[in-house]
Amino acid sequence: MKNENVIEVENLTKAFGAFKAVNAISFEVKKGEIFGFLGANGAGKTTAIKMLIGISHPTSGKAKVVDFDVYTQPEAIKRNIGYMSQRFALYDDLTVQENINFFGGIYGLSRKAIRQKSKDSLVELGMHEISSKLVGSLPLGWKQKLSFSVALLHEPKIVFLDEPTGGVDPITRRQFWEMIYKAADQGTTIFVTTHYMDEAEYCDRVSIMVEGKIEALDTPKNLKQQFKVASMNEVFLKLARNIE
C-alpha cells in the first residue's frame, strides 16, 4: 500500500493578479509517507496547502487528495483529512476536555467514540490530570501537541501540518516528531510544511519551494548527495544562490 498515491498534483498554480504565489508545481505523495514541504517564509507553502485542503480555489492545474478533486469535491477532502494550522487552532477559553469533545463532535464521532478517543489522547499526552484546565493557560508546546492529537481524532487518511513546531523549544520539537512518526507507522500520511531545514532529515521525502516553484524533490539523503553537501540547510542555501 506504500505505493498508493494519496495526493496527486500537476501544474497547480495560484495567482493573485500577475503574481504567482504557487507556480505550476507537480508532485505525488504516497500512503503512510512523511512528506516535507519545505521553503523559506513566503515561498508559497501555506498557499499550496490551502488549495490542497479545499479552502482556496486554484487558478489552474490539477490536484487530487485521497481521490477527491480540489475543484469539485473540497468538502469531501475536508472530511477525510486532518489539519493543524500555523497558528494554534483550538479554543483558549475552553478546557482541554471541552476542546476534545467539541472537535470530536465536529468530526462526526459518536459520544462513545469521543469518550474513548478522549481517554486515549489524554493518557498519551500526559494531560489527564489537567483536562479541566483552560487551553489558554497551557504552554505553547502543550497546545501544539494537543492540536495535533485533535487533528487525528477522526483517524484521517492524511494530516496536513503547517509549521507545527514554529516557536517551540527543541525538546518539544523532538517530542512532536515522535508523535508524527507514531502516526505514520499507523498508516497516516503526514504532509508537513516547515522552514526549519534540519527537520527535513526526519522526512521520507522532501520538496523545496523557492519563490512559488518546487526546485528540488527527493529523499534527504539523495538531495545531499546531489548537491554534494552534508546538511539539508546547505541544500537550501545552494538552491537559493543558484536561483539568485
Describe the overall structure.
With about 240 residues, this protein is of the alpha/beta class. It has 8 helices and 10 strands. Strand 9 (about 205-210) and strand 10 form a beta hairpin.
Tag the structure with descriptive keywords.
alpha/beta; 8 helices; globular; 244 residues; 4-stranded antiparallel β-sheet; 6-stranded mixed β-sheet; 27% strand; single chain
Estimated share of beta-strand residues: 25-35%
How many strands, which pairing sense, and closed or not: the largest β-sheet? Answer: 6 strands, mixed
Content-based structural category? alpha/beta
Mean pLDDT: 91
Segments where pLDDT lies below 50 for 5+ residues?
A: none
- From the alpha carbons, calculate the radius of gyration and give it in angstroms: 18 Å
Total beta strands: 10
Secondary-structure element series:
EEEHEEHEHHHEHEEEHH
Lateral strand order in the biggest sheet: 6-7-8-3-9-10
Give the proportion of residues in helices.
Answer: 25-40%
Principal-axes shape call? globular
In whole angstroms, the N-to-C terminal distance is 40 Å
| H/I helix tally | 8
Protein name: ABC transporter domain-containing protein
GO molecular function, one term: ATP hydrolysis activity
Organism: Arenibacter certesii
Keywords: ATP-binding, Nucleotide-binding
